[in-house]
Amino acid sequence: MQLDLKCSVCDSALTIHNHLQYGTLNHCRDCGAIYLNSTHTPKYDHSYYKSWFAQQQGNIEKIKRINFHSLLTSTIDSLKGKKILDIGCATGFLLKEAIELGGEAYGIDINEWAVTQAKKELPQAHIFTSTTNEAITKGLLEPESFDVITGTDIIEHVPDITDCFTDILKLMKPGGKGIFTIPDIESFSCKIMGSYWFQYKPEHVNFPTRKTLIKLAEKLGFHIDQVSPHRKKLTLGYIFNVLHSNSNGFQKYIGKMGLIISEIFRINQTIFSLPTGEMLLKISKTPKDPTTEPSGEKSCSIS
User: Is residue 69 within 8 Å of residue 102, measured between CB atoms?
Assistant: First the structure.
């Protein structure tokens, strides 16, 4: 991917931050965002998910649904009768939780294999192989129709975060809620691991900071309800599987050995609540009323 050498949020110039084996990390002088100018073009085909779902499908579904349930119930009082859209829905684990909580579920993903699996599991849901922008232009999704929009592990894949959130806001009802998890380049794990940070991958091209998100909210007119370090409940089996399937070199070896040892000692299903090197972003779309509270940084929780 050839990177535009300016920040997609504040239009400031980018400077070289670091070199990775698959591209260059570029730093925004103003908001601090990091962009990967990747020499690798990701292919979101069936192998993208199957490579790490195949061996641990049941374990992955269990742990992901536990975390998705927590995300939804901690943000929304009730999903009954509400429309929810999951962007980058993969095989539909979050949508399963949304349906069980009474929501009317919609999902989009650019991976046709994942969408096919999700449709098989959730025939009552409305799921499309599409980007957000394509779903709008092709009329697959109705503008201003969603009470809740989620995007877990998706924002880092899009090169232009402004375009991404512009489309999200087009689909969200006034007063609607958004829930997103994003790799946190201000996290402790990033600071100590440097260029070896596990979130630096060829397909991860966009790493906003808290300042980036505040500027984005001011630019597009949405309200930030919360930005905070994100913790997840994870099993040892899940942690080692991710290391083995999505890493190289020493981390991959640790993942493989960890899977073997944890299964031998039957501790692979032990659950821990851990920081993940991610931040949790919760937003709301400002109602079309000039008397409402202004968007941006004011009256939001940022940590």
Answer: no
> Which ranges constitute the DSSP H helices of 101-235?
112-121, 132-137, 161-171, 188-193, 210-220
From first to last of its 303 residues, the chain has per-residue pLDDT tens of 555 689 999 999 999 989 998 899 999 999 999 999 988 777 776 666 665 554 455 567 888 999 999 999 999 999 999 999 999 999 999 999 999 999 999 999 999 999 999 999 999 999 999 999 999 999 999 999 999 999 999 999 999 999 999 999 999 999 999 999 999 999 999 999 898 898 999 999 999 999 999 999 999 999 999 999 999 998 888 888 777 776 667 778 888 899 899 889 888 888 889 998 999 999 999 886 544 444 444 456 787
Domains contained in the chain, CATH given: 46-231+278-285 (3.40.50.150)
Q: Record the pTM.
A: 0.88
